[in-house]
Amino acid sequence: MLNLYITSAKHGDGKTFISSGIAATMQSLGYSTTVYKPIQTGAIEHNGFIQSQDISFV
């Protein structure tokens, strides 16, 4: 099992975008992937549920 942790000290520098690209590439190669975001500030309400904007993007 391969674990990757994408991190940065800055806000808005593309961590979610890069993580999405890596996950999509690994899936296209036949790997089973998942994306986990342990900390999120701010959220949106959609159909009565609080939802992370970044995870809905992924």
In short:
This protein has 58 residues and is α+β, with helices and mostly antiparallel strands. It has helices at 15-28, 53-57, and strands at 44-46, 49-51.
Q: By helix and strand content, what is the structural category?
A: alpha+beta
**How much helical structure, as a percent, in the residues?**
25-40%
Number of domains: 1
- Figure out the total of helices: 2
| β-strand number | 2
Order of helices and strands: HEEH
Shape from CA axes?
globular
* Span between termini: 21 Å
Strand content: 5-15%
Which runs of at least 5 residues are low in confidence (pLDDT < 50)?
none
Radius of gyration: 13 Å
Query: For the largest beta sheet, what order do the strands appear in spatially?
Result: 1-2
Q: Mean pLDDT, nearest integer?
A: 84
Q: Tell me about the largest β-sheet.
A: 2 strands, antiparallel
Give structural attributes:
58 residues, two-stranded antiparallel sheet, 2 helices, 33% helix
What does this structure look like?
The protein has 58 residues and is of the alpha+beta class. The chain has one domain (15-57). Helices cover 33% and strands 10% of the residues. The mean pLDDT is 84.
Set down the secondary structure blueprint.
Elements: H1 15-28, E1 44-46, E2 49-51, H2 53-57
Antiparallel strand pairs: 1-2
